[in-house]
Write a structure and sequence with these properties.
By secondary structure, this protein is mostly beta strands. Keywords: Signal.
Length: about 280
């Protein structure tokens, strides 16, 4: 990756995780000098139009593979007229670690159903992959599907979940061994204004970022939340595979929801090397 990619990162489309739903129209009251029309619903029972809700039936932790531990989310979309955000903003967040796990490919969302038919409608399924083995049976996570959220939900172990296999997989992605004189220098971090952070950095003693970028991310110093490298369908991680560029390297961090803003301080981690107190411009 070279300096020319810097401008590409700054023009990536908006994929903000927390885009607000469309505002409902305000009720229009009849003029005081006119009596209210007959056969209307009493005002205290009227409901403003809404974008519906996400109902999560169950979250199941499955087996461990090359992509990580499989997490199955069974869900329904109830009374949804329009989605507040793009389907690629679908993700889950571990409540304890604040680790964000994005959907790996564009999801085919189930058709919305009216509330009265929800109980008789089979749930749809979404799959996420926990590369770092953070989520365990009993964990609480929050689910976001195209801007609709369901918060603080319990995770249960599925029939193919193997704790021993999960521990072995976690050992595989331990921090790579680096030379004692390996260094990281962050030249600049810029908030692009569309839910992305553009990081310009240089390293010595580090040849490449690992395939899953398990040890390359940004830490929000206010909350301790880890923000991962952005992964784009059909392209992969927006980070360099090799770190041999004399003018530095660039990577794009997923800052959906604008957790980190200009003026904040973050810690940049590249293959386990850390530089704290980096100002976001």
């Amino acid at each position: 990756m070279n300096m020319q990619l810097r401008s590409v990162f700054l023009t990536l489309p908006l994929l903000s995780l927390y885009q607000p739903a469309a505002l409902a129209d305000r009720d229009h009251e009849a003029p005081r000098h006119q009596p209210p029309p007959r056969h209307t619903t009493p005002k205290h029972m009227q409901r403003a139009p809404s974008s519906g809700r996400l109902e999560v039936e169950k979250i199941i932790l499955g087996g461990r593979g090359l992509q990580g531990t499989r997490i199955e989310v069974r869900y329904r979309l109830i009374d949804v007229k329009e989605f507040p955000a793009h389907p690629m903003t679908t993700s889950i967040v571990d409540d304890q670690s604040r680790q964000l796990i994005q959907i790996s490919k564009l999801p085919m969302l189930v058709a919305p159903v009216p509330a009265e038919k929800a109980a008789s409608t089979p749930p749809g399924k979404l799959y996420f992959w926990d590369q770092e083995g953070i989520i365990k049976p009993g964990s609480k996570i929050s689910v976001m599907v195209a801007g609709l959220a369901s918060l603080h939900l319990p995770v249960e172990a599925g029939p193919d979940y193997d704790p021993a296999a999960a521990q072995v997989a976690e050992a595989v992605i331990e921090k790579p061994k680096l030379p004692a004189d390996a260094t990281l220098k962050v030249h600049q971090v810029k908030d692009s204004g569309n839910g992305l952070l553009n990081v310009w950095f240089s390293t010595t003693g580090v040849d490449a970022i690992t395939a899953g970028a398990e040890h390359t991310y940004v830490i929000n110093q206010k909350t301790g939340e880890k923000l991962p490298v952005l992964r784009v369908p059909r392209i992969g991680l927006l980070a360099p595979k090799h770190l041999e560029h004399t003018d530095g390297s660039f990577m794009v961090i997923n800052n959906q929801g604008r957790q980190v803003k200009r003026g904040d301080h973050i810690t940049v981690v590249v293959v386990g090397l850390e530089q704290p107190d980096v100002l976001v411009e």
